[in-house]
Amino acid sequence: MIEIKDLHKSYRMGSNSLHVLKGINFSVEDGELVAIMGSSGSGKSTLLNILGMLDVADSGSYHLDGVPIKDLSETKAAQYRNKFLGFIFQSFNLINYKNAIENVALPLYYQRIGRKERQEKALKYLERVGLKQWATHLPSELSGGQKQRVAIARAMAAEPKVLLADEPTGALDSTTSYEVMDLIQKINDEGNTILVVTHEEDIAHMCKRIVHLKDGVIVEDKMVEQVRAAQYVQ
Amino acid sequence: MFDIERWQEIFDTLRKNKLRSFLTGISVASGIFILVILLGFGQGMRNGIEQEFKQDAATSIWVWPGTTSKEYKGLNPGRRIQLTNENYDNAVALYSSELEYSSPRIFVRNVTVNYGKESLVYGIQGVSSNFQMIENAKMIEGRFINPQDESSTAKVAVIGKKIRTDVFMDVDSPVGEFIEISGIPFKIIGVYKEYEDREEERIYIPIAAAQKVFNGGDMVNNMSFTLPPKENFDEAVKQAIDFKEGLKGYLQQVHTVAPDDTSALDVWSAMEEAKRYYGLTNNIKIFFWVVGVFTIIAGVVGVSNIMLIVVKERTKEIGIRKALGAKPWSIIGMILHEAIFVTAISGFGGLIFSMAILEIVGPHIEIDYVLNPSVNFNVAFSTVIVLIVAGTIAGFFPAWKAARVQTIEALRNE
User: Fold this and answer.
1) What angle do CA A142, B413, A63 make, to 5 degrees?
2) Under an 8 A CB cutoff, do B323 and A49 touch?
3) What one-character DSSP code corresponds to residue B82?
4) Stretch B92-114: mean pLDDT, rounded?
5) Of A197, B26, B201, B228, which has the maximum CB count within 10 A?
């Protein structure tokens, strides 16, 4: 599903150059649930942004579902993001003047799906994250966990090949974090490929594979026994 | 542009950002409103000044004799110039092809006027039938003096509206009543209206009667002429000046007056006077246009500013939309579509509102030199279009910039 080879990325900070990714080789199969771990500055978010086509690598190759991702125009990148990827952010990134169902329906708008079908699909995904009765509420009327679940529903709505979650539990307390992880696990159980960036050990162990990043290189890549989040959720 | 989904998205956004939409709209609407009102008043002042000159026919020329101030051909200064019927008849004969209307006039002095037992103190003037046109007097009852009255030396009189309200308040109509001038009965045949009260305090009688009955002989106190109106203002002024100079030359010759003696004969041309005021109103018009254009520029700057802030404020939202798959052009399109929609609606709103005010209030405005302020619809319409185009261009650059920002940068924006 994801195939990257010798990926490099540096940021220019005035006259200095900061080498963030120093040759990453890494692949993800269909249906995997991968945690990308590392301390801050290890390059894990940069890696995820490049995978999400939100940022571009300096060198190296990246194939997503067999499609080479290189020198994309903004328009093409937008198309691929819409078709292949769903994003879950630490700060939710919901549009604050749109209610839950409108937020979930937004990626479908960019797929040029009709209004009625958008509404139906959005409601379906809201129901799957257990927020059907909150459909007409604005983000400001929802709790953090609810907001993240709306964001997950939004990421799912476009039916992407890969879900990319950047610290999905970073802004949540532990109980809510487990609820969110439980949801992510259930989505993965249905066969979706998910990448989760986190720096929390317990969250990482709820995935099936942990990739450790340190100073821009992968130092460890191991399969783990998945801890089910459901046991922590009442 | 006719993408229904896009429209729904725009309406959603506008509905849910009421304050922002409202403020953008208000700034555009007020710009247009101020411009239209300014232009309206500019036109109003023009109308008002033109009105002041409509008291008498615009092309009228008046001859007032005076006293010579210069020695000329052996004649002493201080000589009174007295116009005669002959002067008038010759002038009319000389310029018959150029004139529209003409009338001599004589002021009847030292006579008593009575209506029944009441003594009246109004000036009496002997004039010809054409004097009505020269003075621009409107008949509100009866008729003016006609050529027949002149040839038959009829003892008839035409009175001003003010005399009618002051003296004849007890009768249904003064027409048919008699006044006595020096004991001689004159029948009232009409009432006229003027732009100024002062000019409604006159009693006009046929000049023939005035000369014969009140021992005027062939004396004329004053002559007045009008020239046919011309389409082109400058041509009209030239015509008036040519006629004025010719007439003056003739009269100076007949009365042996030095050509540079200004006090002996005063020939006054309304057109020439008007030219100065038309110049003034043109300046006023230019002034209002300049103010208006600056108002529009201020409006454009205002709209641009708001667009800039709107785009800045929405940077994060743009990032989210891009992450969800919005293409750069769809972002630009969305922002511009919204901007055009808001400026168009509020621009036309301001236009309609201000034009309605001018329509309703304009005709009731009674200030000196301001009359019926109004504005050319096409001019106002074009201004709205200019503002919309300017707003679009102003909105395009920040929108374009926003759409090009790296998605990740936009998402980090708080």
Assistant:
1) 95
2) no
3) -
4) 87
5) A197
